[in-house]
Amino acid sequence: MIRPVPFLLIAFAAVVTGAPLDGSGLGASARPPAQQVHPATDTSWIPHVRADTLPNGMTVLAVRRGSAPVAAFVVEYRVGGVNDPDGGTGVAHLLEHLLFKGTRELGTTDWARESLLLARMDSLAGAEQGKGPPAASVMEEIRALEDSARSFSVPNEFDGILTRNGARGLNAITTAETTTYFVELPSNRAELWFALEAHRMSDPVLREFYTERDVVLEERALRVGTSPAGQLQEAHLALAFPSHPFGRPVVGYETDLEALTRPVVREFHSRHYGARNAVVTVVGDIHPDSVVAWAARYLGSVPAGEAPPPVPAVPAPARGERRTELVLDAQPALRMGWRVPDGMHDDAPALAMLSVLLTGSRTSRLHRALVGDDRTAISVSSSTEPGVLYPGLFVISATPRSPATVAHLEAGIQRQLAVLADRPPARAELERVRIQLEASRIRRLRTNLGLALRLSDAQTLWSSWRAGLAFPERMAEVTPERITEVVRRYFQPDNRTVASIRRREGS
């Protein structure tokens, strides 16, 4: 599962540092592993969090709350689409699928015989490595071996054990920067979760590899190949980030996916999915001391692994607008993007507030102007894509209402931005935005899973759960004048990347 990353959700996990800007106004250097963060301003509303680091580098967070005998379990890795190797896009997302396939003890009836078939498959694939997708005759033999190996597999045994023990919401998410696995379980099944997760971390068998690779190829076809919106997003990001992994799709390119083999993906896992890149978070009716004890017992032997794969620096963008137009048999659509700093920059809170001010509700400025008053748009939204660790894009997306065109929408969006650049919003308007944000924050964090995911995101991305969850307080300090400042600074024509869909004539 691939998760889009709207600005508002990620903003709550961001931390502001006041990193200096380069000459382009968009700090471009690669981020070092450790970050300086502002001290949290107020986290008194957060239940007590116990934070421990195991000797192998794994971080464990535990929160005891609630009276219902349930808990949420999350493990998040600081590895995502930006860490995919050149020519190997889609590895992180494919691994997300494969890590549900079991181990040498889970998911097999006869590991000794199954392993011989897997080894033969790997040998055939390895002989083809570096030549692009394996030849058709080789793939035919590999698939025959995979079919034979399947006779020894127990489908979905990992999922089945958890389900039989009361699991709810078992799933996983891959973003540009992280991969997250999560589930809710009865509290008295907590030790079972740690035992199963230890197997998955230390001893995954990437069985049914080529079958699952086909599933991901089908997912790409659904999300991009047959989706005009997916094609538009992919083209827009590629144009905005021509030499940075942010410009590549998390799901991967079709040719890269077809060339991936089980040995290559297994090596990527062994290098980068170690303990030092993992954060385990448990929230619910469970004692933190028990959580830490189980983590040490079951996860303490997980290899540390390497540091997160290095990511190239984001180059300072060439000044000048970039545009692309897709001609499709599809509804016209518009994506306008402006390069903005990473989520730790001092301007991040003001940009997050701006997003809500523009499209956060039916009374927001762009919704009211384009969908309500002018009736030129069917919908309008804003987000920062595709992540927060590196400079990204503040994107405004809109779909025109016939007979209006994307040009009408672009002009309307620019008019509203010009108003904000000329005159700060009223304090009462910002106060309404703050109330929206506070209500949204309460809704997300009142559930065990919501809090666990938020803690994990903050700790994984910024190495500080406390500072990450304090971001709403940073947003509360944003003044109307700061909104005008960021609009003037970033929303300039020569900092803009625009992508649109035009309907093919006669369609």
What's a quick, concise take on this entry?
With 507 residues, the chain is α+β, with helices and mostly antiparallel strands. It has helices at 7-11, 91-98, 111-127, 136-150, 157-164, 190-202, 209-225, 228-240, 254-259, 262-272, 288-299, 348-359, 365-373, 406-422, 427-445, 448-462, 465-469, 471-476, 480-490, and strands at 49-53, 59-64, 70-77, 168-174, 179-186, 278-284, 322-328, 333-340, 377-385, 392-400, 496-503. The chain starts with 6 loop residues before the first helix and ends with a strand.
Structural class: alpha+beta
The low-confidence runs, each spanning 5 or more residues with pLDDT under 50, are 4-42
Biggest β-sheet strands, sense, barrel: 6 strands, mixed
- How much of the sequence lies in strands comes to 15-25%
Structural Rg: 24 Å
Number of alpha- plus pi-helical segments: 19
Q: Give the neighbour order of strands across the main sheet.
A: 1-2-6-3-5-4
Report the count of strand segments.
11
Oligomer: single chain
Query: Helical residue percent?
Result: 40-55%
Report, as a whole number of angstroms, the end-to-end distance. Answer: 33 Å
What does the average pLDDT come to? 88
